[in-house]
Amino acid sequence: NLCCFLGHSFHRAAGPVFTPSSLVVKYGDPAFATCVACQSDCDESLANLEASGYKEKNGSTLKWKVSSLTEWKSDPICYYIDHNGTQCCSTLKVTLYQMPTNVSISVLNHSGPMLEKSQYNLVCEVGDVAPAENLTVTFYRGQTELGKAQYSRTTSRKPENGSFSLSLNATKEDDGAQFSCGAKLELGPEGPQRPLVVRSQSLTATVHCKSKENPLSSVEKGTLRLNCSAVGNPNPSYIWTLPFRGPHFNDGVLTIETASSQHEGQYNCTVSNSVKTVSVLFNVKVQSK
Ligand SMILES: *[C@@H]1O[C@H](CO)[C@@H](O)[C@H](O)[C@H]1NC(C)=O
Ligand SMILES: *[C@@H]1O[C@H](CO)[C@@H](O)[C@H](O)[C@H]1NC(C)=O
Ligand SMILES: *[C@@H]1O[C@H](CO)[C@@H](O)[C@H](O)[C@H]1NC(C)=O
Ligand SMILES: *[C@@H]1O[C@H](CO)[C@@H](O)[C@H](O)[C@H]1NC(C)=O
Ligand SMILES: *[C@@H]1O[C@H](CO)[C@@H](O)[C@H](O)[C@H]1NC(C)=O
Ligand SMILES: *[C@@H]1O[C@H](CO)[C@@H](O)[C@H](O)[C@H]1NC(C)=O
Predict the structure, then answer these.
(1) Is 264 in contact with 250 (CB distance < 8 Å)?
(2) Which residue's alpha carbon is nearest to atom 2 within ligand 1?
(3) What is the reported pTM?
(4) Is residue 1 part of a domain?
(5) How far is CA 253 from the centre of its chain?
(6) Within this chain, do residues 22 and 114 fall inside the same structural domain, yes or no?
């Protein structure tokens, strides 16, 4: 209880008491609480309740009722002014919560297969959750926890959108693994006893092996030739990813007749057949004469 400041006197006394002492309410659900404004020797006319919604007064007992709570900040204040003119008040902490409307997982700025031994960021996006400060996001591979994240900034009581990330070093073992994230509201003992969790859909990772050699190819101004042809059975197909905007290549050998500095960078050749897929990286430097 807090005795509010009035005039120049300030003291603590047996002030107003709410039952229950705090509330956790789901958005749109009813809320109900009772306050006894003073314990003994009361002037009932000096007891009051400041709150929106339905209020009822009987002596020094004040009742508060809302059939559907939708106000994000609605803490009722119960107060009493004693014979010395000291105002004593008590605030009922109301935690209004809303489960996220949407939880989704993705890989930051990346689509398609990942390469082993490369680093990626898994991103979990959570839509319209409140109170954001009580949210914990957990990343999973299958059922295994990989890590947790929370809001690092101050949040309001209103629903917020959030984006959380976890870095991932892709490994061969991640090929075919199912990544997901879960958004959990932890509202303490006054909150619902069932877990408040929304799980994203799973993202199935495809991880391609890097070949053992990681060739650094240089080329004198002239012809650039990168060979990634593999003997495969069944016959493989090739997809090249280039460091510049260019034509699509799908042969085992990539040839650029007049290479210049604009052709420098990383080339990725993905070789696949129905049995397996392998990626070969080439780092290309073009030397001027
Ligand atoms: C007011 O409180 C008294 C004593 O607790 C009780 O007897 C009475 O029925 C209450 N009146 C109303 C209108 O609820
Ligand atoms: C959920 O989030 C994903 C990614 O942010 C978005 O594509 C999708 O439209 C959202 N769905 C809803 C119902 O908001
Ligand atoms: C991801 O892509 C967006 C827009 O395409 C860009 O603004 C952002 O900087 C990129 N983030 C990283 C970490 O590369
Ligand atoms: C959260 O994102 C959704 C969809 O993009 C948007 O409709 C909503 O207004 C956003 N909420 C906040 C609090 O920014
Ligand atoms: C990923 O691998 C790099 C280099 O091997 C290492 O420095 C980094 O700490 C690793 N990150 C994680 C999240 O394991
Ligand atoms: C919600 O989070 C805040 C800040 O971390 C914490 O003080 C409060 O106790 C949490 N609420 C519950 C009911 O756990």
Answers:
(1) no
(2) 58
(3) 0.73
(4) no
(5) 44
(6) no
| Cα dihedral: 252, 256, 262, 265 (round 10) | 20
Q: Which of 27-36, 89-98, 112-121 has the lowest mean pLDDT?
A: 112-121
Q: Indicate if ligand 5 lies below 6 Å from the C-beta of 121.
A: no
Residue that terminates a domain, selected from 69, 96, 123: 96
State the average pLDDT for the chain. 86
Same domain, 112 and 195: yes
Q: Please give the average per-residue pLDDT across 53-81, as a whole number.
A: 92
pLDDT tens string 195-204: 899 999 999 9
- Segments forming the whole domain that contains residue 251: 210-284
Inside any domain, residue 4 = no
Q: Which residues line ligand 2 (CB under 6 A)?
A: 102, 104, 125, 127
Q: Whose CA is nearest to atom 3 of ligand 3?
A: 109
Mutating to test ligand 6, I would choose from 21, 95, 133 the residue with most ligand atoms within 8 A of its C-beta, which is 133
Query: Ligand 3, residues 106, 109, 122: which to mutate, most atoms within 8 A of Cβ?
Result: 109
Residue 51: which of 33, 38, 39 has the closest Cα?
33
Give the model's confidence band at 8: pLDDT under 50 very low, under 70 low, under 90 confident, else very high: very low
What mean pLDDT is predicted for residues 69-81? 90
DSSP 98: B
CATH number of 17's domain: 2.60.40.10
Asked if 180 and 201 count as a contact pair (C-beta separation under 8 A), the reply is yes
Residues with CB under 6 A from ligand 3: 108-109
For the chain, the C-alpha Rg in angstroms (whole number) is 32
Q: Which residue reads 């009580």 in tokens?
A: 134
Which of 145, 179, 205 delimits the end of a domain? 205
**108 alpha carbon – ligand 3 mean position (Å):** 8
Q: In this model, does residue 6 exceed pLDDT 80?
A: no
